[in-house]
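Checklist before submission:
- one chain only
- standard amino acids only
- sequence pasted in full

Submission:
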Amino acid sequence: MDREAAAGKDRISNLTDSLIHHILSFLEIKQIAQTSVLSKHWRCIWTSIPILLFDEDYHPDLLTNRFMDFVDGTLHRRNNMSDIEKFSLIQLNNLNEYRVSSWITNVISRNVQELSLSLMQEDPFVLPISLCTCVSLVSLKLKITPSICFPRNVSFPKLKHLTLGGVQFTNECWNAKLFSKCPVLEDLILAHCTYDTRNFYISIATLKHLRIYHWGGQDGLRDCGLKILAPNLVSLFYQGWVAKEFVLHTSPELVEAHVLFFGEDAATREQRMRCCGTSTIQFLRALTCVKRLIIYDAMLQWYEEITSDSYLDFIKEYVVGIGPSKDTIVPVENNYLLTPINLVARAHSHNLQACAPLHLP
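Returned file contents:
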């Protein structure tokens, strides 16, 4: 047996604080807090941990008030000299807005770089000004129901990654101003947002990756025009009702676009195309500069239909290839398997390329 181990010597405490922080990052925050009873040194370690993840799933035994007390205590005991790299708050119960705002202001004062809030509130949540003028943020994720209220003035000089969930956009000028105040933004995700404007503008010179998606029961951009000016855009993912109008200014760097349109429950493909066919065609034509276009056609209810000869003849006017999830499908009729269909061979017979779809980052 090792002599130091036999003597009960604590070798972990001799590691550098940064290495101990890295080891503790694999534990739940409640377990990390329990290490503070080991010694004064470990109390200092606990109060200077750079990553704080308060996930409601980690605290099923804590009532809402106890949960808020735990967050309060953690930040109150924090070493005043230590910065916070990442702060994440996930809670499915309504939290006191004043206390949440105080937590945000606290971590902002400690030069937080990554901030993630996923909350289910009873009333619209008003973001504190300290958050919307933060100079240290690199990544920001906001998913707060029922809605988020931004202050009039916003500024994110270092922000590169932005995710907005459930935001209600109502002012075209403010929308444009929001993105103009993100001068180095590279990744933008708009999830389940509502657009009560005539047009929604995204003008970001540095933007590389854009994702817009909605649930089936949401109108999304159905009654709104979507206009994108992003000359350095590399990838686009769009899921939802096709936008009323779609304008994509020249994006020579655009490599890949994934598109999934919702549609009416009409009986035939022709009827479904009449419902929003014009907007669909306009959307696809705007993507002629993309090197690879992958369409997941939710307007067509049966897989056999989107691999039929008539559909492939239709779609080849707008794309150079298809990305089937399977090389071969076997149709079923009256519980009997029919002759297998080779999708790759069928695509090639229509002068279409066939390749496996890629996943966006």
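Reviewer check: Residues 269-285 form the longest helix (17 residues).
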